[in-house]
Amino acid sequence: MGTVITFKRPDGKDASGYLANAARGNAPGVVVIQEWWGLSDQIKGLCDRFALAGFDALAPDLYKGKVVPYHDTESANKEMNSLDFMDATTQTVRGATQYLSRNGAKVGLTGFCLGGAVTIIGATKIPELAAGVVFYGIPPEQAAKPADVKIPLQAHFANKDDWCTPQVVDAFEKGMKAAGKSIELFRYDAEHAFVNEQRQAVHDREAAELAWGRATEFFRKHLG
């Protein structure tokens, strides 16, 4: 449904990503950030789904063409740890945001796992954003403090998550509330990565559909 495009980062360098356009011409935009596996077919599928829901969706390729197979957690961890999160967020993700906002459209940011952490960093660093939806990812506080979040956030977390643990989620929620920031936070009795239908071991269809409905409703509210 979508297509691979090249867009400019603020520093003038080229970046690429997968773009799926909504049927209407003046659609709001959503930037979609990958899991630690890379720009997989599953993430492209989510862009297609956002397009069907009425949003222009662009997933920037943060790994520059590399996609890690689902079983290879060691390689995924290596790729994630070698990613410069600040450069990825303030340059590549911001470039994608600027691309979608070029006709005056409001743009939101969403991401999964690694992308959830990038979404929170983006909420503090990307001025063109109007809203963010986080899925099971939180960056270290030195990367993004709750007090620095500048946009309304919605967040979805799994109770059976050994990476983005319930304790980490509770601390993040407490920090957001203490800073007087707008957050809608949902917890699901599911595993990390429960939205990813390609990973049958962790996918939870009921939780995924509930989260999807909440996310698209939130974006319609804040992006138009």
UniProtKB/TrEMBL annotation:
Please report the name of this protein according to its UniProt entry. Answer: Carboxymethylenebutenolidase
Coiled-coil positions: none
Q: Which InterPro entries match?
A: AB_hydrolase_fold (IPR029058), Dienelactn_hydro (IPR002925), Dienelactone_hydrolase-like (IPR051049)
Q: Which domain of life is it from?
A: Bacteria
The organism that produces this protein has a lineage beginning with:
Bacteria, Pseudomonadati, Pseudomonadota, Alphaproteobacteria, Hyphomicrobiales
SUPFAM superfamilies recorded: alpha/beta-Hydrolases
Give start and end of each Dienelactone hydrolase domain. Answer: 17-222
According to the UniProt entry, its GO molecular function terms are:
hydrolase activity
